[in-house]
Structures are given as structure tokens and as C-alpha cells.
Specification:
single chain; 352 residues; alpha/beta; five-stranded mixed sheet; 10 helices; 18% strand
Length: 352
């Protein structure tokens, strides 16, 4: 079984081919960082146009890399949401066109499910498992019972952790993208210098909050005149911030681990997924937590943590072999929760 995947939800244009032997036959990703860097963040209109300009070429290159024709495929999968709607539309229409022309089944994949199932492509992790999904737009903890079966037990009530990294880095003048730059400079800093808050630490439940932490960084930055905002100050503040994020994630995820182990005694895995899963410091902290709990932390390789089409192709393959497929009148979705039945959190934004 062979599936072509297309990913265009944000600022990476990607096409990939995977098979049911868990082999990635092709994986092309085009970053748009240079297009968005002058603006300090992703500009949706620029992203959508870049997808439109480059996607056909990337699909052709992925098929050449795999040594396949469209007739050799079993299905076509694409990100159907959530994401920037212009980009999602480009990818969805391209996938529909290929599926229609090649007379192949079409699958619209939830981008978050792509992240959630990547470890089954790379590590063959069995269900059920606990998932900590951390990215620029999302911060959730879910129990993954099976393909399409998610139980959300925690979410951010304000900012996602990746958003907090990027905005904190922007306050500190570290450029764009901010998360990797902050992680790098934090390795040179003193994490004990600044007393930053640990939002919600010690409280019941598994929800997250990062807006107060971000505000505290702004307060410290405003306390230094411009000529005193040295590289040492920035490194110490970055290290203090990263440790505060780590402490917060550990505290909230520990509650989730206890709940998961109580209700799913056969589950032994905590999966870390999403762009922030590439942060090595946070991986280390979460490994300490799982070791203490008698669980295993599994995270995809770094190049499969950020947005890519291999995860979309795999999620499509998982759905397809269960007999699922989508009609060509599928409508792209800017919002698409993994657990639509999860109760709304007071004060939480639309992504929660």
C-alpha cells in the first residue's frame, strides 16, 4: 500500500510518499522562512502564494524520488485542516485534482492527527498512548486510543508553548524563527538568574498557561535600558524562560501521566509531538519524568517533528487501511479539533 501525502497548512510546502512497510520513499519539504523573516512571522497571503508556486514541482520531485507514477499509488492524502485556510485550500485542491485524474481515493487528513500518528511510522508505537502535542499553535495532552479516537485531558487556556517561545524570542530581539534561536542562546545562560513564574504549577488538572510567563519576560526586559540588554542578559533570560517552560510542562504532564496510567494500565508510552518536540532540553526533562513513572518517552526524529508530508501520508494510510476515504467535495477546515467532544475551557482561545 503506497500513499502520496501533501502538506500546506502553514509555511512549509511538502510532498512525500510512504508505504505500509513504514518506509518513507520520498520526503520533500520547502521552507518559506526567507519569505516571512522580514515580517517577523508568517504572512498568510505570502504563504498561500508560495504553496501555489511550488507545490506542483515538489509533488513531481517526490514521485521521481520514489520512482513511481500516479497509477502506482493506492491513495492521495493531504492536510485538510487545521491551518491557514489559503494554504490548506491549495493543498486540498491539488490532492483532489490528482485523485480525480488518477482515479485514486482521496483522504483529507487532520494535521494534528499527522503529528499524533508519526511515532507509529517511525517507532511502531501501539495504542493506547499518551500524547503531548506542542507546537506554535497548539499545546494539548491527549489519550490516543486509536486512529481517529482521541480523548483530550488538557489544553492551553491562552498561548501555545511554541507561540510563547517565538514571542519571547521576538521581545529579546533574537529574530525569526524565535524558538530555535532561544533554545540555542539558552545553552550559554544562567537559568537561576531570573525568577520567572510557573503558571498553574501545583494545581489539579492537566491544562497549561503561558501568557503570564511571557509577560514576566517583558517586565524583566523593560527593566534594562537598551544599552544594558547585553548578550549575557539575553542568554540568562532565555535559560530562565526555558527552565520555567520545562518546569510547567513537567508539572502539568505529570498529572496527565497519573491519569493515563490509572485509566489505561496497559499503556506505557508518552509521545512528544509537534514542532516544539525538536527542543532537546524539553525532551531531556520529559525523559526524566517518564523514567520516574516507569514509562517510555518516544518522539519522532527531529526532521519529522516540524511540519512535513510524510506524517500526512502515513496518517492517510492509517485511515485508508481501515476503509476510510473522503469525497471530493470535502471543505478545507481552518479549525479541526482532534477531540470535538472535549469541553470548552473558560478563557481558552479558539484553538483550544
Amino acid at each position: 500500500m503506497i500513499v502520496l501525502g501533501i502538506e500546506t497548512s502553514c509555511d512549509e510546502t511538502a510532498a512525500a510518499v510512504v508505504n505500509d512497510k513504514r518506509e518513507i520513499l520520498a520526503n520533500r519539504v520547502l521552507s518559506q522562512l526567507d519569505d516571512h523573516r522580514p515580517y517577523g512571522g508568517v504572512v498568510p497571503e505570502i504563504a498561500a502564494r508560495a504553496h501555489l508556486e511550488h507545490l506542483d514541482r515538489l509533488v513531481a520531485e517526490a514521485m521521481d524520488d520514489a520512482g513511481l507514477e500516479f497509477s502506482d499509488l493506492d491513495a492521495i492524502a493531504c492536510t485538510g485542516g487545521p491551518g491557514l485556510i489559503g494554504g490548506v485550500m491549495v493543498g486540498t485542491m491539488t490532492a483532489k485534482a490528482i485523485a480525480f485524474a488518477a482515479q485514486k481515493p482521496f483522504l483529507a487528513v487532520n494535521h494534528l492527527e499527522g503529528h499524533a500518528l508519526t511515532v507509529r511510522l517511525t517507532d511502531d508505537v501501539p495504542f493506547p498512548y499518551l500524547l503531548l502535542l506542542v507546537s506554535g499553535g497548539h499545546c494539548q495532552v491527549l489519550i490516543v486510543e486509536g486512529v481517529g479516537k482521541y480523548k483530550r485531558i488538557g489544553t492551553t487556556i491562552d498561548d501555545a508553548v511554541g507561540e510563547a517561545f517565538d514571542k519571547t524570542a521576538k521581545m529579546m530581539g533574537l529574530g525569526y524563527p524565535g524558538g530555535p534561536a532561544l533554545e540555542q542562546i539558552a545553552t550559554k545562560g544562567n537559568p537561576d538568574r531570573f525568577g520567572l513564574p510557573r503558571p498553574l504549577r501545583g494545581r489539579a488538572g492537566c491544562d497549561f498557561s503561558f501568557s503570564g510567563l511571557k509577560t514576566a519576560v517583558r517586565t524583566y526586559m523593560d527593566g534594562f535600558p537598551i544599552d544594558q540588554q547585553t548578550e549575557e542578559v539575553k542568554a540568562d533570560l532565555a535559560a530562565s524562560f526555558q527552565r520555567a517552560v520545562g518546569d510547567t510542562l513537567i508539572d502539568r504532564t505529570r498529572n496527565a501521566v497519573f491519569e493515563f496510567m490509572r485509566d489505561y494500565p496497559t499503556g506505557k508510552t508518552l509521545v512528544l509531538a509537534g514542532g516544539v518536540a525538536a527542543n532537546k532540553y524539553l525532551r531531556g526533562r520529559l525523559t526524566e519524568l517518564t523514567d520516574q513513572a516507569g514509562m517510555q518517552l518516544v518522539a519522532p526524529p527531529l526532521d519529522l517533528c516540524t511540519d512535513n508530508a510524510a506524517m500526512i501520508a502515513w496518517a492517510g494510510l492509517e485511515r485508508f487501511r481501515l476503509g476510510e476515504r473522503d469525497d471530493l467535495d470535502f471543505k478545507p477546515r481552518p479549525r479541526w479539533p482532534l477531540d470535538p467532544e472535549a469541553p470548552k475551557r473558560p478563557g481558552a482561545g479558539v484553538k483550544a
